[in-house]
Amino acid sequence: MKRNYILASIAIILLGLSACKDTSQKHMAKGPMAFPVQSAVKNNVSVYNEYAANIEGEQNIEIRAKVDGFIDKIYIDEGTEVKKGQLLFKLSAETLNQQVNVANANIEVAKAQVVSAQVEVDKVKPLVEKNIISSVQLKTAESNLNAANAQLIAAKAQYQNAKENLAYTIIKSPVDGIVGSLPYKVGSLVGRSEPKPLTTVSSINNVYAYFNLNEKQLLQFNRGLNGSSVADKIKELPDVELILADGSTYDHKGRIETINGMVNPRTGSISYRAIFPNPSNLLRSGISGTVKFPSNQNEVILVPQKATYELQGKKFVYLVNSENKVEAKEIIVSESLNKDFIVRNGLNEGEIFVVDGLIKLREGMQIAPQVPELTAGIENKTAVSNK
């Protein structure tokens, strides 16, 4: 009985050894695991950095009353398209009409005083010449004539001022544009001291997009363009695109016109201004958008983001050596482009790296490299920076 038990145990052990041997042989037959790999290739890319922008009309003119008065009529409505010289408002003019009449009457009075003074001079002058009266009386008469002429000049000036004030009651548009809000209604008392304008007329044949770059981006801009002056650098800048609030791309491209001369000390940013044509008046003052600012980078290496892993804040790829063994290599990236990274340092052209399945890899592990049919070496690639 005991002998049978020993024989049974030996048989079980032999069967186990046989199974292990079969499994080992199967693994040996399977060989290294296959992983997709890619060769590092230099590319030319167009990088679009995106910046939030505020849109304003080329001219945003506040319409204000130059004289105090009640609004008699409003000839436009909010959003109305107006032409230069078109009538917008009419203010009450009774008081100003009276001031014009008074000023005109003062002119007539001054003219009469001039005539009277001239008569006195004409009367005194021959008497002085005949030594009948003193020359002092002639000087007095001439002085009165000069004073009367001065009063006439002042009266005429007051009349012109009163006429101008009366003309200010008729308010016209100084430019072609779109009317803004109308905070005052008919009957409202308005004047030069009011905090709000009567309205705003925005000239939007062209619109400005204002956006900001930080100091680092400004340095990259200055280093990346030729030219000794800011104007020379601006001339080299490519056209920019505008993304509207609904995510659509505006039909017309714009160009950068000016760069603010000072960095804002509070925000560390500098303001740029781009101009866009607006022939259909689609864009209005006060809306927001996103400016896409392109820059070309030549001879750069792109690495798919899924081909990297992060450890302690650093990015790594797995390089494949001549023995098909993987080695972890740190890379320095400058920015991300959609699903790729631009590698600034750490990866050389021609080096082979694993593209996918990094979670299964270990340092020194031997793999079976598989090269995809489509490689990453595509010239003139365009992407949007997520920076």
List the helices and strands in order. HEEEEEHHEEEEHHEEEEEEEEEEE
Radius of gyration: 43 Å
**Strand element count:** 20
Number of helices: 5
What is the general shape? elongated
Largest sheet: 13 strands, mixed
Poorly predicted ranges (pLDDT <50, ≥5 residues)? 11-15, 19-29, 374-384
Strand content: 35-45%
Describe the structure.
- The protein has helices at 2-30, 94-129, 135-167, 215-224, 230-236, and strands at residues 33-39, 42-63, 69-74, 81-82, 87-91, 170-172, 177-179, 189-190, 199-214, 241-243, 255-259, 269-277, 288-304, 309-311, 314-320, 326-337, 340-345, 352-354, 367-370, 381-384.
- The protein is an alpha+beta fold and 387 residues long.
- Strands 2, 4, 7, 9, 10, 11, 12, 13, 14, 15, 16, 17 and 20 form a 13-stranded mixed beta sheet that branches. The chain has a 4-stranded antiparallel beta sheet with strand order 6-5-3-8, with no helix packed on it.
- The protein is elongated, with a radius of gyration of 43 Å.
Note the main attributes of this structure.
387 residues, alpha+beta, 13-stranded mixed beta sheet, four-stranded antiparallel beta sheet, 20 strands
Q: SSE layout and pairings?
A:
Layout lengths: L1 H29 L2 E7 L2 E22 L5 E6 L6 E2 L4 E5 L2 H36 L5 H33 L2 E3 L4 E3 L9 E2 L8 E16 H10 L5 H7 L4 E3 L11 E5 L9 E9 L10 E17 L4 E3 L2 E7 L5 E12 L2 E6 L6 E3 L12 E4 L10 E4 L3
In short:
The protein has 387 residues and is of the alpha+beta class.
